[in-house]
Design a protein that fits this description.
The chain starts with 20 loop residues before the first strand and ends in a 5-residue tail after the last helix. The chain is globular. Strands 1, 2, 3, 4 and 5 form a five-stranded antiparallel β-sheet that branches. The protein is of the alpha+beta class.
Length: 77
């Protein structure tokens, strides 16, 4: 998924309906792209370019993971 993709402007977290941030992939294949909700500390995977936005697809992250994901988001905020 591209950070300029217009789809990112309309995608929302299935739990709080707020905006999601694209987590950009690093060179490490163990760090795939994802959409992240920093308010709830939930990460949603992107599989084969398709965001998996079912509530059950989301994964709760730890505070340390939260800080790392914030650094990797498309906004950097």
């Amino acid at each position: 998924m591209n950070p300029d993709d217009p789809l990112l402007k309309i995608l929302a977290c299935p739990l709080d309906k707020g905006p999601l941030h694209l987590v950009v992939q690093r060179e490490d294949p163990q760090s795939p792209e994802a959409l992240y909700n920093p308010r709830l500390h939930r990460r949603y995977p992107i599989v084969d370019g398709i965001p998996q936005l079912l509530p059950s697809s989301g994964e709760q992250v730890t505070e340390d993971e939260h800080e790392e994901l914030i650094k990797r988001t498309n906004t950097g905020n």
